[in-house]
Inverse folding.
């Protein structure tokens, strides 16, 4: 049987390039949705562009779509891979494996399946958690790491339970999302109320209605999607234990941290300095928790010079510039 015959059908659900709303002009001419079999599960990724490989991993409660405004510019210099991690979007949603060690292993396996032995990565929110785990657990795979808008459980100091009101507004969902089932019962049927509140209260520049509705539709359309969205938080005991061991060995690769001045500010840079020796920090004015959507031009302005040395001299690259079709 030919590889074309054995390849899974192209994704065409609501979370695919074909059905995502309001993409930049010409987006589908450069990027396509594809399913990638990692050997452990099937992941959905949106790929396109020429050059060394650049992996983009978004956070909760978003999908690959969070990167849409940056991807056309990045694709001029990189082969961009924007992935839905396990449990997200059109990717498979197993019952377990939401700790960052497993998530990082998924990303390494994804890039292997796509033919990229070495790559750079940008991670936002939970994608930042995964990026730290990937850099620590698979140091031979990652050339540069850019991360945005998160603290890292087990690395960052735990915030106090009786913190100030502003901190509570930013962090209360951590405890809620870790509940063992009551949260799903409370949110199911009220997905727009819960998730739209998250976007509204954490953004300094309002996200477009069509984007919020897109994320909520994906979460509301499948009971497994809602369950999986909480699974990242239910796995925090495992993730915290892993990170306590990871921080025994510091990262040596270059790290860029990006934060919104109206949300995390210095927290992101301070977090990565606890783990890495070579950290650059950028704080974007008038921006909240979602820099790729609130301030894409400013985020690109930070990413382009940081990634330029990798673009020009992708150390250890073998197949990165010639991606092969996934099996």
């Amino acid at each position: 049987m030919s590889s074309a015959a054995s390849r899974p059908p192209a994704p065409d659900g609501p979370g695919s390039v074909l059905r995502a709303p309001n993409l930049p002009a010409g987006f589908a001419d450069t990027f396509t949705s594809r399913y990638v079999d990692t050997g452990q599960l099937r992941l959905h990724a949106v790929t396109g562009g020429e050059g060394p490989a650049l992996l983009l991993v978004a956070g909760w409660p978003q999908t690959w779509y969070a990167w849409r405004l940056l991807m056309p510019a990045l694709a001029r210099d990189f082969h961009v891979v924007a992935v839905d991690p396990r449990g997200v979007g059109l990717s498979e949603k197993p019952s377990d494996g939401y700790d960052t060690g497993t998530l990082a292993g998924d990303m390494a396996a994804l890039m292997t399946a796509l033919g990229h032995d070495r790559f750079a990565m940008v991670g936002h929110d939970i994608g930042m958690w995964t990026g730290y785990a990937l850099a620590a657990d698979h140091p031979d795979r990652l050339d540069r790491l850019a991360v945005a808008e998160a603290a890292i459980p087990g690395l960052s100091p735990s915030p106090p339970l009786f913190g100030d009101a502003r901190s509570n507004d930013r962090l209360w969902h951590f405890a809620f999302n870790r509940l063992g089932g009551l949260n799903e019962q409370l949110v199911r049927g009220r997905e727009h109320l819960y998730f739209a509140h998250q976007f509204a209260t954490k953004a300094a520049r309002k996200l477009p209605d069509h984007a919020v509705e897109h994320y909520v539709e994906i979460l509301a359309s499948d009971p497994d999607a809602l369950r999986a969205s909480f699974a990242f938080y239910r796995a925090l005991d495992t993730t915290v234990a892993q990170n306590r061991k990871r921080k025994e060995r510091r990262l040596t690769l270059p790290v860029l941290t990006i934060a919104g001045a109206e949300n995390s500010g210095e927290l992101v840079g301070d977090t990565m300095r606890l783990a890495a020796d070579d950290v650059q920090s950028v704080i974007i004015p008038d921006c909240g928790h979602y820099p790729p959507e609130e301030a894409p031009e400013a985020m690109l302005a930070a990413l382009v010079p940081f990634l330029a040395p990798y673009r020009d001299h992708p150390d250890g690259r073998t197949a990165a510039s010639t991606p092969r079709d996934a099996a």
Q: What stands out?
A: The longest strand covers residues 42-48. The chain has one domain: 3-158+237-312.
